[in-house]
Amino acid sequence: VEPPPRITARSRAAWVAFAEAQGEKAYRGRQVFQWVVGRGVRDPALMTDLPRGFRESVAAAHDSTAPLARWSSDSASGTEKLLMPLSGGDAVEAVLILEPTRTTACLSSQAGCPVACRFCASGLLGLRRNLDAGEILDQFMELRQRAAGMGRRVSHIVMMGMGEPLLNYPAVVQALGAIHDPEGGGIGARHLTISTVGLEKGVERLLQDRLPYTLAFSLHAPTDELRRSLIPFEGALDIAGLVGAARRYLEVKGREVTFEYVLLHEVNDRPEHARALVARLRGVRATVNLIPYNENPGLPFGRPPPADIDAFAASLRAGGLKVTVRKRKGHRILAACGQLRLQSLPDGEAAVQPPLAGLP
Ligand code: SAH
Q1: pLDDT tens-digit map of 170-228
Q2: Residue 175, ligand 1, Cβ within 6 A
């Protein structure tokens, strides 16, 4: 017997359909969505403006338990890391990042990751499975509640936790839709960012669906040869493909993308890399976000010294590029970019790496 779906797993439209199937008016379904996603109330018994019988049907058909969240805090940098168990024995991590002017929730889309960028901890064990929309939304709801306890409202969402979001397109889009929905999470589309290595079909679909979200492309190298050695994933677009997608996003959505560039000492942080990057991105309207590497035990990459980071940024700016440098947060609790990893795997168990389903 299949376990009932989590109460967070239904879209607003699916709640409407559920209500109608129970012989209720459509707006009753919307009310459940508002309780769950808008107000963070999962227990149907507390949904006091619903008829009792309908509350009981909602309860009977759904798992309304909250995830058993575990937290680590790095109060010095304003970072709270969530470890959230999944059915099946795995667990994913998500991070709340507290800054003076914004509160960001960094969410995972997959347990593990099939892309296996050489420098990233998330893909070390391959992909376990895609999360469903409810499991992505659960992370948001847990982080939002944590933030509320600290007198904060989550203002930004970044799909920069574990996983390649475009390999789990329907669940990511459903979860972001609920987070964006004014009756759900109520967060503006420009404050919702999808970070991706760039997959042709996924990017195409984002454009076709005209989704209003912010896009960040993981570029990481000025040449395809170096990029392929760092991101040895068949489906990833080449640099010309990324630049073309950035242009089209600007045309279609009127929005500039961000190119993320992880700075790996002596691998892609030399003056010649900066010069080549300037040459490659000249005339492309975009921002380059430099991410000084967060070291991972066991991986042979180092963070550049501060002087090299500054010199790289200065060189890009001198070449006319717009540059930001990401501040390091949460590394004390292994919560910084690229440090999230699959948890709770029994020791020594090989992770399965199923064939890529791609987009349906
Ligand atoms: N899977 C998504 C999101 C990854 S996290 C993607 O690939 O875009 C966000 C950024 O951090 C990505 O650009 C990713 O390549 C980068 N990153 C990965 N590991 C890192 C590390 N150890 N230090 C700094 N940045 C890292």
Answers
A1: 999 999 999 999 999 999 999 999 999 999 999 999 999 988 899 999 999 999 999 99
A2: no
Q: Do 95 and 78 meet the contact criterion of CB atoms below 8 Å apart?
A: no
Asked whether 67 and 323 are in contact (CB, 8 A), the reply is no
119 in ligand 1 pocket by Cβ < 6 Å? yes
The answer to whether 37 and 166 have CB atoms below 8 angstroms apart is: no
129 HSE (CA, 13 A, CB side): 12
Q: Is the dihedral of CA 109, 107, 240, 275 positive or negative?
A: negative
308, burial (CB in 10 Å: exposed 0-12, middle 13-18, buried 19+): middle
130 CB less than 6 Å from ligand 1?
A: no
> Are 100 and 166 spatial neighbours (Cβ–Cβ below 8 Å)?
no
Query: 117: CA distance to ligand 1 center in Å?
Result: 8
Tokens of 246: 């950035």
CA-nearest residue, atom 13 of ligand 1: 218
Answer for the pair 224, 238: CB distance below 8 angstroms, yes or no.
Answer: yes
pLDDT tens by residue, 114-138 = 999 999 999 898 999 999 999 999 9
What integer pLDDT is reported at residue 349 of this predicted model?
Answer: 35
Q: Whose CA is nearest to atom 18 of ligand 1?
A: 338
* CB-based contact 333:304 (threshold 8 Å): no
Ligand 1 center–CA 347 separation, angstroms: 25
Residue 344 has a pLDDT of: 58
Token pair belonging to 326:
């990401």
The model's pLDDT over 43-68, given as tens digits with 9 standing for 90+, comes to 999 999 999 999 999 999 999 999 99
Element (H, E) at 9: none
Residues catalogued as catalytic: 93, 337
Distance 260 CA to ligand 1 centre (A): 8
